[in-house]
Amino acid sequence: MNELELRQKFENNINKVVTNFNSICPDNESKLSFIKTAIKSDNMLEMLSSENTKLLKEAMEAFIDSAKVTETRKMQQAMLMPLLAKMFKDTPFSEMKSYFEQDSKMYSLFCMMFVTFKYEESLKKHGEEHHKDILAALDKYVYGITSL
């Protein structure tokens, strides 16, 4: 694939992630409720309707698909870098919640990152060190934001 095709594939995947997740959780309150449920559940997919389970699985697959190819993984990392920078700088939970209220797309991606990293077996098998660091940061902010 050439660079233009890779960029289009990446954008299609991210649009699918956001669109599918927003179909399940259309507003900030439902996103907050979703991550509160995800924290408590060992198998979140069992708690969703079959239609929402399908949407969530498709979103997770699109999120992972963007990470499989080096070029699109770099695009994904660049897009998520502002969010990750905030998380690794220990941004206060209330400030992070305000950030999400202003940027619904990033809030959706944050939620999908959390669910994907928490539940996707292929990520656990690879066990890359940065995955553990990201999951730890995601856990911290999910717990922090949901406790406000």
UniProtKB/TrEMBL annotation:
<dbReference type="InterPro" id="IPR035947">
    <property type="entry name" value="MG354-like_sf"/>
</dbReference>
<protein>
    <submittedName>
        <fullName>DUF1951 domain-containing protein</fullName>
    </submittedName>
</protein>
